[in-house]
Amino acid sequence: MTQVKIERENLTQLIDFKLNQLRKEIELILNKWNYPFSDKFLDDAKSGKISEAEEDAIILKNIEDEIRNLENQMKNWLNQ
Q1: Distance of CA 44 to the CA centre of its chain
Q2: Which of 21, 16, 17, 23 is nearest to 74 (CA)?
Q3: With contact defined as beta carbons under 8 Å apart, do 63 and 22 qualify?
Q4: Are 32 and 15 in contact (CB under 8 A)?
């Protein structure tokens, strides 16, 4: 594995930028289906209340997982 040195401040800025982009993607999906919150959207997609939302629900869930991962990694890096 290749290692690269990067200043913590730059790393934090990169991660923040990525997190903001991911949150914008979530917002686009929720706006498309007229939902203010992801929990309700995911519940309705899972139950079949909103048809044809399965693909967007999967994407949204994956984005939420990626956000959680990035936030945890950033906490770990900043605490070192």
Answers
A1: 19
A2: 16
A3: yes
A4: no
Instruction: Indicate whether 8 pLDDT > 90.
Output: no
The DSSP element (H or E) to which 6 belongs, if any, is none
20 contacts 65 by C-beta, under 8 angstroms: no
pTM for the predicted model, two decimal places: 0.87
Range 3-9 average pLDDT:
84
Query: pLDDT digits over 16-59, tens only?
Result: 999 999 999 999 999 999 999 999 999 999 999 998 999 999 99
| Distance (Å, whole) CA 18 – CA 67 | 9
Residue with tokens 């997190």: 19
